[in-house]
Amino acid sequence: MRFDDAPDRFKAGNASDRFSGASGVLFEQAMAQTRMAISLCDPHAEDLPIVFANRAFRQLTGYSEDEVLGRNCRFLQGPKTDPEPISRIRKAIENEDVVVVELLNYRKNGTTFWNALHLGPIYNDRGELVYFFGSQWDVSDVRAARAEEQHAKEMARELSHRMKNMFAVISGIVNVTGRMRGIQSEAAEINSRIQALGRAYETTLDNASSGSIEIGEAIRAVLSPYDRDEERLKFDGTSASMPFTTISIVGLILHELAANATKHGAWASEGGRVLVNWSLVDDDSALAITWEEHGGPKVDSAAIEKGTGTTIVDRLLSGGRGSITREWRDTGLFVTVKVPTRNAA
Predict the structure, then answer these.
(1) Which segments within 184-265 are labelled E, that is strand?
(2) DSSP category for residue 325
(3) What is the pLDDT of residues 219-250, one digit of tens each?
(4) Residue 137: which of 152, 119, 155 has the closest Cα?
(5) How many H helices and E strands in the chain?
(6) What total of structural domains would you count in the chain?
């Protein structure tokens, strides 16, 4: 930073003496009106004392002007102030450099605040160092928000880990029970549904600190195993986030539709395709999903509608106050599903 030429001596507490004429007046007005806490230190005096502190600085720290002027800024430090940013400040002063640090400072009454300090040199027109300028900003709320966000992410990661373990344990129990009772095929069918639920959560749960999951990612995760060549599925939909309950219902419904398409529908034929579209409807209070099959063989709709998968889907939607319609078009099955996004449990 650079200002007009300044005399060699000045009166402590009146930093504008170093700026001539109109510059001094403008300096005083700017410092008085700004809400940013600002201080100036004299680099030519012993121990770099504060020679100017505006009203915002005094309000931030709780000290009066007489208690601030002539002291080094370290008087705002305390027992929990980290020495690392202090070292960076000291180095910047030695090198006449600019530095921005966050450090814990103490007010006069002993309370702490996180100070985002911007420190830099001020030169006159001859290139001579006349001050070190410091602006202080109370970022305690910002730091608290960061800590809460980090805590939420850590909790989400832990929840993700536990849910993955839970799905693995349940899957293992189903497999063991199936072998013991001689119903391996039934156990495999149940496990396929468990795995579909796991996929719906697994790819996005690490970021679900807000208690919701991005619906598009969940849909793609559930259906990706059925589209290994990436030619049988087409997606189109919103990127909105949904509560966990909605994700559970959607994940199981899409799994049943995909299983049906593999056995009897579009994916039972070479070149069969499925188009999946989703959007928010009813003033964003519901999620609408369309499932449109093309290129599959003609199927016995009555037999499918009596199947286990159909029963599961209908009961899930009934319990979640959702709805489903099925149309057996010439091009293939067309399904419309609506799931509430609020109070879906």
Answers:
(1) 212-214, 233-237, 241-243
(2) E
(3) 888 888 888 777 889 999 988 888 777 887 88
(4) 119
(5) 10, 12
(6) 3
